[in-house]
């Protein structure tokens, strides 16, 4: 009935490797080294997401809650709460381990260590750290997802530089953007 | 049912590599305690979806870079939803909600059926017939009958006609909790993971067939590691 190939009628052999020891649940490592280091001193100055020159990232520190639209050309580190939309097309956006973001993020590079509810679009790469939790679609040429990351949503790959072109399509839940290129990936 | 009508192309994406190197094994670095299993179910699953250009895959397990990459590099679009974890979190939230609810308010008996209905109001929310393949892994082993049947209804509606589901069933309660990732077109890696849920039931073959009764066809593969693979075609 199934027209199985000759070998198909045989149950697959499992070639389990011997267990090397008891189950060792992985603990979330500390913040990944690629994330900008949080300021050593608490930052409670008003965030200036769109006014600071590139070089050091603007920071929304833990304890701050921001609503609105973020735009500009500076890197942004979010360890507080942000809602609205974040459009920093040439910059890097990092959501720190305490960060809670409810916004679509459009950036050159996105690193998530905390929680994001919204669509992510990066022209270079997206990385989800081990403690991250993302609910939304991801559109980028490169994606790295570490063990322990949680993602509820759609992942689509673009050619480098194409993310902007398909931005509109990437916003909708039912968008149908054909993946264009084998994606370089980070080791899991 | 006419899977047999589909010609198998030599060298297709699901074709087994030739030679001794075809033995399943860690093509990539293995996680400690992980195990690899040859998967005819995966091989068939890939064969079934290989005709679909830009097909959509729904992965209901814990998100895995390896699995995502595997499909994306082949041109598929992947949606991922950690269904078991979501269910666990939902139950925890419900428990907390009931605990803090004032006496006399919303004190109706919560049945498994009600919980399942409520959970699925927020889970697996996708347009109908939007996926060509679903990776269910061993999820069904962890749910009660109420959620299982409703989940099956939802999965059936989400599948494109001709789409297929790959599911795993333990023949006996597993010794540890695993998550799964695809290593190559015929190898699945079982990664030990912190226990998310207690194994709920062992399906008999007849129960599996009944569960997927609406599907056009089913096919099962039995491995020596007490894990059965089921492939179900809509």
Query: Which structural class best describes the helix and strand composition of chain B?
Result: alpha/beta
Span between termini of chain B: 9 Å
Number of strands of chain B: 9
Q: Give the C-alpha Rg of chain A.
A: 20 Å
Shape of chain A: globular
The stretches of 5 or more residues of chain B where confidence is low (pLDDT under 50) are: 9-27
Helix content of chain B: 25-40%
Strand portion of chain A = 35-45%
Give me the side-by-side strand order of the main sheet of chain B.
Answer: 3-2-4-5-9-8
Q: Overall 3D geometry of chain B?
A: globular
Which two chains have the most extensive interface, and how many residues on each?
Answer: A-B, 46 and 61 residues
Radius of gyration of chain B: 19 Å
- Oligomer classification: heterodimer
Strand content of chain B: 15-25%
Instruction: State the order of secondary-structure elements of chain B, H for helix, E for strand.
Output: EHEHEHHEHEEEHEE
Describe the fold and architecture:
- The complex is a heterodimer of chains A (about 190) and B (about 230).
- Chain A is an all-beta fold and about 190 residues long.
- Chain A contains 1 helix and 12 strands.
- Chain A has a domain at about 55-175.
- Helix content of chain A is about 5%, strand content about 40%.
- In chain A, strands 6-7-9-12-10-8 form a 6-stranded parallel beta barrel.
- Chain B is α/β, with parallel strands linked by helices.
- Chain B is built from 6 helices and 9 strands.
- Chain B has helices spanning about 40-50, 65-70, 85-100, 110-120, 145-160, 205-210; strands spanning about 35-40, 55-60, 75-80, 130-135, 160-170, 180-185, 185-190, 215-220, 225-234.
- In chain B, helix 4 (about 110-120) runs parallel beside helix 5.
- The interface between A and B is large, with 46 and 61 residues.
């Amino acid at each position: 009935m199934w027209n199985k190939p000759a070998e198909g009628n045989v149950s697959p052999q499992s070639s389990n490797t011997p267990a090397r020891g008891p189950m060792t649940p992985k603990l979330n490592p500390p913040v990944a080294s690629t994330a900008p280091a949080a300021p050593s001193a608490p930052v409670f100055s008003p965030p200036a997401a769109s006014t600071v020159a590139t070089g050091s990232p603007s920071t929304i520190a833990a304890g701050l809650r921001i609503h609105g639209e973020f735009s500009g050309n500076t890197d942004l580190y979010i360890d507080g709460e942000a809602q609205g939309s974040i459009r920093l097309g040439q910059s890097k956006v990092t959501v720190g381990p305490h960060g809670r973001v409810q916004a679509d993020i459009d950036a050159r590079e996105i690193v998530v260590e905390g929680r994001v509810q919204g669509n992510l679009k990066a022209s270079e790469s997206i990385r989800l750290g081990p403690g991250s939790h993302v609910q939304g679609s991801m559109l980028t040429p490169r994606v790295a997802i570490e063990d322990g990351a949680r993602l509820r949503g759609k992942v689509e790959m673009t050619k480098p530089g194409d993310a902007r072109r398909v931005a509109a399509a990437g916003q909708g839940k039912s968008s149908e953007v054909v993946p264009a290129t084998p994606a370089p990936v980070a080791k899991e | 049912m006419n899977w047999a009508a589909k010609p198998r192309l030599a060298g297709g994406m699901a074709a087994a590599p030739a030679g001794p190197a075809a033995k399943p094994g860690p093509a990539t670095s293995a996680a400690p305690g992980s195990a690899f299993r040859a998967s005819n179910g995966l091989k068939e699953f890939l064969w079934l979806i290989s005709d679909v250009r830009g097909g959509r895959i729904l992965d209901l397990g814990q998100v895995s870079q390896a699995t995502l990459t595997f499909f994306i590099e082949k041109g598929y679009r992947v949606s991922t939803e950690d269904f078991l974890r979501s269910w666990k979190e939902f139950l925890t939230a419900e428990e907390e909600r009931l605990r803090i609810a004032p006496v006399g308010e919303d004190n109706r008996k919560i049945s498994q059926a009600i919980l399942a209905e409520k959970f699925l109001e927020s889970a697996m929310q996708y347009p109908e017939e939007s996926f060509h393949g679903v990776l269910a892994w061993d999820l069904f082993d962890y749910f009660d009958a109420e959620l299982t049947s409703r989940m099956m209804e939802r999965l059936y509606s989400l599948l494109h006609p001709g789409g297929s589901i790959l599911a795993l069933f333990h023949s006996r309660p597993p010794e540890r909790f695993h998550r799964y990732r695809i290593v190559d077109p015929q190898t699945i890696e079982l990664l030990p993971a912190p226990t998310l849920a207690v194994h709920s039931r062992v399906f008999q073959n007849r129960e599996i067939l009944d569960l997927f009764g609406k599907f056009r066809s089913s096919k099962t593969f039995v491995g020596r590691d007490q894990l059965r693979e089921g492939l179900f075609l809509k």
